[in-house]
Amino acid sequence: MWKSRKIFYKILIDNNLLLPNKQACLEQLTKLGINYIAHHHDPVPTMDDVVKIQVTNGTAYVKNLLYVDKKQNYYLILANHTTHVGKLFWKTLGLSSGNMRISKEEQILEALKSSKGNVNPFSIANDSNNRVKNIIIDEELTKFQRLALHPIENTTTIEISLADLQNKFLKALNRQSTIAKLTDASAEQQLQQLKQYQNDQQNLQTLAITVKKSDFSEWYQQVIRKAELIEYYDVSGCYILRPWSYFIWEQIQRYFDDLIRAEEVENTYFPMFLSAQQLNKEKEHVEGFKAEVAWVTKYGESDLNEHLAIRPTSETIMYPAFAKWVQSHRDLPLKVNQWTNIVRWEFKYPTPFIRTREFLWQEGHTAHFTKEEAVKQVYTILDFYEQVYGELLAVPVIKGIKTESEKFAGGDFTSTVETIIPQNGRGLQGATSHHLGQNFSKMFEIKFEDDKRQKAFVWQTSWGLTTRSIGAMIMFHGDDKGLVLPPRVAKYQIVIIPIINKDLDEKHLNEKCEQIKQILIKQKLRVHFDNRDNYSPGWKFNKWEQKGVPIRLEIGPEEFKNNEVRVVQRFDNKKYQIKIEDLNQLNQILDNIHNAMFQKAQIELKQRIKQADNWKEFMAQLNQRNTILTKWCQREECEQQVKTKSGVESKEKDSEIDGQVQLTGSAKTLCMPLKQDEIKEGEKCFHCGHQAKRYVLWGRSY
C-alpha cells in the first residue's frame, strides 16, 4: 500500500492525470488492496440509467454531485440514490447553502478533469490543485455493505465498501471525508425511503435469473416461472398457462384461423371421450397411442359399464360423423378444425410446453374427392405452419417429410415443420400435416356417390399445431436476463415507465405518460403504462425485461422537458430518443425487431446443421450437439441400426468434454427436407453403403 501522496503520484501519465481512465483506476485499486466487483456495460450518464444495473444485495447506488461556491471552492457529495439532498446540512459544515451551486460542465472539467455523467470519487486523484475542499458522504450510505461507483468512466460500475473508499483510497491521497445527514426530511420519511429501497433490492434478487442460458435446463425452468408463463400444478405433467403465455396462444389462434378460413375450413367441437370399441377400430392407428391413452373407469363410487378413453387425437371420434355427413360428391370437400385439449400420458420426463400430459392444440380434418386435392391440402397447411413460426414467433423451420417409421400411425405420409434448438442442438417437431389416404375412410365407411353415380371412398388429411410452439419461441429467443418476446405475440408490445424526480411534478409526468399511451393505442399498439408507486424505476426495468416486452419507453425530467421519450429495445438493448410527434415510427421499429430476431434465429439454426459422408463424421457432429444431413438409402432396417448404434456409442463417450456436459442418446430421423439436391446414381448411404435415395436430417430430439 502506498504510504504517502508522493508515492501515489508516481504513476502520473497522459496530460499529468493520475487516473486517466478506468483501466488505470482499477489497477490502482488492486495495488491498494481494495477488493471490488466489476460490472461492464454501455455508458450510463444518468442516475436513471445507473439503477438499471443489477448489483448484489446490500449495495447502494450512489449519485455523485459536485458543488461549487462563489470562491470557486468545490465540494463532492456522495449520496444514496434515494436521498433527496437538502440545504440544511451545509450549515452544520459551517457553510452557506445560498453560496452553493451545482457545477457546470466546464467546472467539472476544471476541478476533476471529468465530465457530466462521469463525476465519481476516484476522479479526486486528478485534482492536483486541491480544488475540492471536502468530500461529503451521505450517512445513509453507512447502512450498506458496498457502494456502486464508476471507476473514472461510466461504462463500468464497481462495488466497493465505504471503509475501503475512505481508509484506503482517500487516505492514500491524504483526503478527508465527512459523514453528514444530507436530507431535510424527517427520520420517519428517511426510514420509509430506506425500506422502499431494501424492498426493491430483495424483489430484484427474487426476480433475477440466477443461471446463464448455457445452463439450459435450469435456465428454461426459471424463465417460464419468473416471466409468469407457467404455474406448476399438483398433477405431474400438467401445468397452468398464465395470462402472459395464454395470450401468445390466442395470437396463434387468431392468425391461423384467418389462414384456414381462406381455405374454407370451419371451426367445430367434438367430445373428448371415446369408447374402447371406437378407439380400437383402427388397429395400426391406436398402436401409435396405446401406451399414452388415459382412461376414465369410474363415476363417483361406481364403475363405468364401459371404460372411456380421453382423446389422444380425434380421428376415431370425428370420422363416424364424417360418414353421416358425406353422401355425395356435392358434400365435398369437408373441412373442419377444432381448438381443444389433448391428453397423452407421457412416460418421459415432462417439460412445460415441450412435452406435457395435457396440452392445447388445433386439429384440422378434411375429406376430398381426389387424392390430388388431399395432397395439395396437406402442403397448403404445411405452408401455413411455416408462416405461424416465421411471421408470428420469428422461429425458422425446415419443411420436410417423415420417414415411414416416424410418420403418423395409420397415415399414408406425414409432412412436418422441424426446428433445431441452438443451445443444445436438439430437434423439435413444430407441427405436422398428414395425408391419410383412404385408410380411415375405408375403416369408417366414409364414402360418397361420385359424378358418375359410382361409390368411392374419400381421401383425407389431418393436421395439428400445439402449445409446443411457445416452448420453441422461448428457447430460441430468451437470453441470460429472461424472456425475449417477438412483438407480434407480446401481450404488451410497449411498456411506459415514468422516472419520478423531485424537479418534476409527478401528476404532470403521469399525464404525459397517459397521453403517450393513448397516442400509441390509436396506432393499434398494445401498450401498458406502469405507474405503480410502490416500485422503483429500476425494479420495473428489470421486471419487464424479465417478461420480454419488446420496447420500453422511459420518460424522465429530460424527456419531459424535450417532449421526447427514451426507447430501449429488449432484443438487442439498443437505446435512443424519439420525439413524441414521431411516435408513429414505433410500428415500423417493432417490425424491424421481428425481422432482426428471425434473421438471428435463422443464422443460429443453420450453424447447427452439418453434413456427414460416413459414420465417423456423423458421430463427431452428433457429439458436438449438431443435426446432421446425410445421404440415405431409405431402408427402415438401416434407420433402426443408426438409432441403436448411435445410442450405444454415445453412452461410451465422456459425459463432459472441454467443460461442457455432453448430450447422450440415440439419433433419429427428423425429416427428409423438401428442398434438397438430387441424389445421383452411385452415391452411397453414409451408413450401410447401399444406393442413396434421399437426403435426411438426423439428430437427437425432444
Automatic annotation (TrEMBL):
Statement: the UniProt record of this protein carries the keyword Protein biosynthesis: yes
Alphabetic keyword roster: Aminoacyl-tRNA synthetase, ATP-binding, Ligase, Nucleotide-binding, Protein biosynthesis
Enzyme class: ligase
An example molecular function term from Gene Ontology annotations: aminoacyl-tRNA deacylase activity
Positions of the Aminoacyl-transfer RNA synthetases class-II family profile domain: 248-486
Taxonomic superkingdom: Eukaryota
Enzyme Commission (EC) number: 6.1.1.15
GO biological process terms, semicolon-separated: prolyl-tRNA aminoacylation
Gene Ontology cellular-component terms listed: aminoacyl-tRNA synthetase multienzyme complex; cytoplasm
PROSITE patterns the UniProt entry points to: AA_TRNA_LIGASE_II
Pfam families from the UniProt entry: HGTP_anticodon (PF03129), ProRS-C_1 (PF09180), tRNA-synt_2b (PF00587), tRNA_edit (PF04073)
Protein name, per record: proline--tRNA ligase
Species this chain originates from: Paramecium octaurelia
Lineage: Eukaryota, Sar, Alveolata, Ciliophora, Intramacronucleata
